[in-house]
Amino acid sequence: MKNIYIKKIAPLLFVSAAVLMCCPVPVKAAGARYSSTMAAPPSIDNQTFTIRDDSPLGAVVGQLTATGSNLQWILEDDGSKGAFDLDASGRLIVKDIARLQANRGNIVSVYVMVSDGVSNSNMAEITVAIQDTYVNIAPTLDPIADKGACAGTAVDTIYLTGMSAVEPDQTYTLVAVADAPLLQQLNVTHEGVLTYQLKGGITGGSCMITVMIKDNGGIRNGGQDTRIRTFTLTVNRLPNVNITSDKGTVIAKGDQLTLTATGGDQYQWRAAAGIVGETATASIQVRPTTNTRYIVVATNNAGGCTDTAAIDIRLLGDFIVRANNVVSPNGDGRNDLWKIENIGDFPENELTIVDRAGRTVYSQKNYNNTWNAYMNGQRLAEGTYYYIFRVKNPVTKTTDIARGFITVVVGD
């Protein structure tokens, strides 16, 4: 609403009259009458002007007009509170830019009178309409990249940048809304920290999130007080990861098995005892020496979402050793010794070998693949012998036992 400032002034009453003067009169003019008339006082009428609110200091609002001679211009009352002044020629000029802009969009009145040095004029109201030319600049907010989210209920965060109301005396607010009911919560702070959380059970889909920044500068004269940024939030599924074993989950100690993960695009097995070879593959080889849990992290290429799975491999009390079942101690370098594969996996062991009659032909603690089918310096006769391989289990503190046979062949 425009404010109009008016001050009412009671006008002065001037009277123009003939003045009779008595003075010495020449003889021939005896009885004659003389008269003299005084000049009319100065006068000024109400006037109206318009000026832009962005006018510079000293800009002329308007040239006032008045009647009379040798006029002096007098600013009696200023409804603009100091925005204007009068110069000696009767021009109304801008005196204070800040006060001028404080009155933008308003109509103000100043009251002026003139004087000729003898008489003063009536008070005139000079009305000035201050045009509001301010055009608000839209606030700023950097574009927001599309975002992928992994299914689940974890709270995720996006940090917005480039927020500004532009004009230094303005403030702004931020609001975020989504166009689909995928989110349990969606918030944004004044500092531009946007957080969101998916609803439980959401495994896919997408929505458009709109972020609006608005300042308090208004939209008059075609100004802009709002900027909108949008981005797409896509929900990516988690890998449905599963692990299988080619020999089941209960094996004999010494067995080597293959574990295979499915349901993802990429895999990484966590470090664990008994893994043989590479771990960044779907399938790995393992030879556990104790009960062991194997864990894999699967990743989907779409969105990079991850999930984990685990499998527990348990060892039987009696276990199987992998070894050659023929010993031919002839010095040809082939099967000269009885060798157990991966003997290093059994650090606390004891080997006993007996013949068909049950007589012990060999006994050794911490066996290390050195038996050559000799006893007391003499080569054993051909035939079948039986071994008992005992290993102390470091977890259960019990003794695991493997049994089998060895054929001794005597050749040239």
From TrEMBL:
Pfam families: CHU_C. Residues 1-29 form the signal peptide. Keywords: Signal. GO terms for molecular function: calcium ion binding. One of its GO terms (cellular component) is membrane. NCBIfam families: Bac_Flav_CTERM (TIGR04131). This is Gliding motility-associated-like protein.
